[in-house]
Amino acid sequence: MGKTVYFLGAGFSVLFGGPLQSNIIKEIMAIEQNGNEPEGFGQFADVKCRLLNFLEVAFPKINENDYEHINIEDIFSILDRAILNKDSFHIYSLEDLLEIRTALINSIIFMFKYKLYYHLDKQLLMDFLNILLSQNSNSTVSFITTNWEIILDNVLFKILMNKENPYSLSYGFDTDYYAYEGNSLKYFKNKDKIIHLLKLHGSMNWLYCPNCNRIFHDFVEKIASHELQHEQYNPRCRYCKDIYKRKYDRGDVENPFMLRSYLIMPTMLKELDNLYIQQIWHQASIELSQADELVFIGYSFPQADFEIRYLLGRSIRKDCKIKVVLYKDDEPKNHCTNDYHLLPEHRYKYFFGLNDDAFDYSGLEGYVKKNMEISNSSQQ
Ligand SMILES: [Zn+2]
Question: What is the distance in A from the centroid of ligand 1 to the CA of 172?
Fold first, then answer.
């Protein structure tokens, strides 16, 4: 067996408490103070308020109770188009729009932290990874994902840190540990095999320095939220200390070099041309072009992901075997025949030329179970 590439969509992380993109605004609206929320709730309440004010202006005909149904791509696309055009928008100046965009990003980051706060049973993920990594040692595995959450990073790091395990972990570009040296990639030194975890839209555990452009990671915490909670965490780049000091000596309070989150937002105008995102997408293209098998899990292959369709169309070899693992809700037999053209199966079939055998509607649980049975019977 050669290389298997796993392409993981939102349906993969929903299983571990992550939100679907179509529910992001709904989830933000649903967050209420309950006395047990993660730290940073106060800052979140402020940015949510800014966001609500903007929605009232941008969607004047929508009742506040229906804000949860507004498409997040519409909000970002309005903001991004106005910002790119350097327009003002109703009562908002260009500077206001930039602030609202940051407020929306910070609301999303907090919502992820909130949703995954009480988390969760990792056993399924452990089983999934153990099956993949225990297979024939000549085979290799890569992951490509559009998800921001870090459940996979978390569990993979723990497994791979073990000296006995021959694999190291790479995001497809150089990163540095954030605050805790225990997350350093130095544990992977002297390991010759690499597992790529390529996060096409960035990650909740990355912060980048706008001064030296380094990216810092943490495998345990969603440090992207430190951008919102900068008063508590003061996330700074340890390599640019000298610059902060000089600014401080001059009496500047504002710090333009505070580390920032690194996430590509769901907008029609995605910024995919920056340094690290380009490296990640380039590595994804290499992995896909080497794939003997490509397994999609929980990815609905939406028409709007045209950059991903381009990446796949350009990179996949004709002899690459394709499997699609989805959930019961996506299964055509649970939908009216007239709606077939709206389902993921239709999109996959007429992009890759797949037949019915390529589809499995038993989800990640079913996939893990089947593969466990295969690996158990081959060991007997
Ligand atoms: Zn720096």
Answer: 20
Q: Residue 133: what pLDDT? A: 83
Asked whether the beta carbons of 207 and 166 are under 8 A apart, the reply is: no
Q: What share of the chain is helix, strand, coil (3-state, %, to 5)?
A: 50, 15, 35
Amino acid identity for residue 370 in this structure? K
Q: Residue 216 Cα, ligand 1 centroid: separation in angstroms?
A: 10
Smallest CA-to-CA distance from 21 within 76, 95, 85 is with 76
| Tokens 């992009």 belong to residue | 351
Calculate how far, in angstroms, residue 265's C-alpha sits from the geometric centre of ligand 1. 23
Give the side-chain half-sphere CA count within 13 A for 60: 3
Residue 345 has pLDDT above 70, yes or no: yes
Q: Do residues 171 and 217 lie in contact, with contact meaning Cβ atoms separated by under 8 Å?
A: yes
160 touches 195 (CB < 8 A): yes
Compute the distance from residue 209 Cα to the ligand 1 centre, in Å: 5
Residue 78 CA: distances (Å) to CA of 66, 84, 265? 18, 10, 13
Find the DSSP H helices in 135-224.
151-161
Q: In what order do the strands lie in the sheet with 215-217?
A: 176-177, 215-217, 202-208, 260-263
Q: H or E stretch including 262?
A: strand 260-263
268 alpha carbon to ligand 1 midpoint, in Å? 30
Integer-rounded Cα radius of gyration of the chain? 22
For the beta carbon of residue 359, count every other beta carbon within 10 angstroms. Answer: 19
Q: What is the pLDDT of residues 254-312, one digit of tens each?
A: 566 789 999 999 888 888 888 999 999 999 999 999 999 999 999 999 998 999 999 99
If you classify domain 3-18+121-206+269-379 with CATH, what class do you get? alpha beta
pTM of the predicted protein model:
0.94
Structure token digits, residue 21: 């993109």
Q: Please report, for residues 26, 146, 269, 358, 364, the alpha-carbon distance to residue 295 in angstroms, rounded to integers and kept in the order given.
A: 30, 14, 28, 10, 11
CA terminus-to-terminus distance, the chain: 20
